[in-house]
Every structure is written in structure tokens, then in C-alpha cells.
Amino acid sequence: MLSAGAVSSRTGLRTSTTTFPFASLTTHRKDMTRRHRDLESSDMFHVVNRGVDRQDLFSAPADRATFEDVLARTVEALAIEIHAHCWMTNHIHLLVRAHDGDLSTAMQRLQSSYAQRYNRRTGRTGPLFEPRFWAAPVVDDPQLLQCVRYIHRNPLDIVGSTGLARYPHSSLPRYLGRTESPGWLTTELLHPMLGGDRHLRSVLEPRPTDRLPCGFVAPQRTTDLDELSTCIDLTLEERPDRARIGGRALLMALAVELRVADPPILAERLGVHPTTVRVMARRGRVAIATDPASARLRLEVLRALG
User: Fold this and answer.
1) In this model, does residue 15 exceed pLDDT 60?
2) Are residues 155 and 259 in the same domain?
3) Which residue, of 92, 164, 192, 210, is most buried by count of CB atoms within 10 Å of its CB?
4) What angle do CA 97, 98, 104 make, to 5 degrees?
């Protein structure tokens, strides 16, 4: 615990309260070291998987139609919901709701059934997908909108900004009303939230976090500087690897990203000029985008925040 007026040796933040407002630091430490897939904190997930050894999942025009046929059968059989999707050449993105928590069974059925049909067509043998899919729970509406935006931006580097709304293997043109939605796609939840062309503008507008991997789309929750500083301190104690980003730069970058405090307030608490906050926050974002250890450190802090 740090008393009022103390300064964190890692972030440089002067505390403004008697103690940091944590009731269960043990819980945060446990979350930081967790590496298993979290399938319990939500029934909505951003799911990603790719071809084994990064090989193509779709090598002929009809393959994606075959995959969607298998997906439709999986949706009907296991009562899951698909709210957004994007099929790239060697990987897939889905926004899935599994009400009964049986996401693993659904993904196993989807992937194995498609692999069997793909292997029969191509004469290959063996697994087609990576054995372990990636899934991140989506726990609030802001994170949900960020996740959908990320999924719909995926083909941008291939088709460009003018072709994104017409990319046929994504749910984006379906939400824009430019193509008909298939029966396996559930649109009732997101349609009023996205707002058509407003969502397209959001997808096309660049953001500093666009260079981060999809795993770093975090829940948008309320926090404060003291809590954020404590999470950074604890995370830096727990992590054995060295990240390029320092505690102070990480604090500034996350404080700006999570809108915890404006630069003048942050500068006052840190005893620096507001320009310094902006410069260091920018350096922190660059480190997170280019240094894998810094990116992992950011994710651990966000997980600790809950």
C-alpha cells in the first residue's frame, strides 16, 4: 500500500487517496498469470483461428460457400449465434454467442466438418485448422462495437477503403444493407447499434490501436489513475520479461486510451508539463504497437483492471 502523497517508483504517480481502492489484490494477481482460454466470463466471444502452418483455408471460390454451409448446420445443431464474421484466405474471425457455454464443441464441429469436406475435395489429409482456436470474451457494449469494427476492418489491406463495403466474405456489407443476410447470421442485436453508414465511417477512420493484434481489444470500463497505477505496479512485479515500454509511459498511454484523465490533470499528478504527457503517451503507443513484450504488458494491465 502507498500512503497519500507517496510516489510510485514505477509510474511516478503521486497518490491522491489514503490507500489504493483495492479490496482483493490477490484476485488481480491470479488474473495476470492466467493463460488458459476464458470461456466463463461471458457468452459472447471474438473467435479467431487460422490454417495449420498458416496454410490457406479457402483455395477455390466454392470453399467459402462450403464453409458457410457447415456453419449453418453448426448454428442449427448447437443453437449458437453468429453476430459478425470475416473469412480471409488463411484465417477466420467470428463474433459468436454461445448461450450454453459450449463454444469449444461448436468450434470443434465447425472446423472438423469443414476440414473433412475440404480434404475430400483437395485430396489432402490431416488437420486443416490450428488445433487451438483463440477466443476473447466480450463483456460490454463498447468492447462489442470495437470488436465488430476490428472484424470488419480485416480485409482493408487487401481490398482498400473503396472495396471494404463490398467485400463478399464479411458481415459488413450485410449490415450496410448491400447484400442479403444469410439465415445463420443474427443481426437483430447489432443492427441498431451500428447505424449503417455511421459504422462504415467508424471502420474506415484510422485509430492508434489499429496496429495492435485483435487480442488487445479490451473491455471499456471505468477506472481512475490510482487504480491504473497500482495495476501497472503489480503487473511489472509479476512479469519476468523486459518490455521496451516503462511504467510511466505505459501509465500515460493507457490513461489517454481509457480516457482516465486529460493530459493537464495527468501532468499535474505526475509533476510534468502537459506536452510531456502527450509525447510520452505517443511513445508508449508506438512501443505497444512495435514491441511484443510491451503489447503483452498492456494486455496484462487491462486484464488486471477486469
Assistant:
1) no
2) no
3) 92
4) 120
Q: What are the pLDDT digits (tens) for 22-43?
A: 222 222 233 333 334 555 668 8
Which alpha helices (DSSP H) does 205-291 contain, by range?
225-238, 247-257, 263-270, 274-290
Written as nine digits, the cell of 205 is 477512420
Secondary element (H or E) of residue 58: none
Same domain? 250 vs 104 = no
Residues 114 and 158 in one domain: yes
- Distance between CA atoms of residues 287 and 95, nearest Å: 29
Rounded to two decimals, the pTM is: 0.62
Q: Which three cell numbers stand for residue 234?
A: 503489480
Per DSSP, the three-state class of 81 is strand
pLDDT digits (tens, 9 = 90+) for 38-63: 556 688 999 999 999 999 999 999 99
In whole angstroms, what is the distance from residue 93 CA to residue 103 CA?
14
Amino acid, single-letter form, for residue 140: D
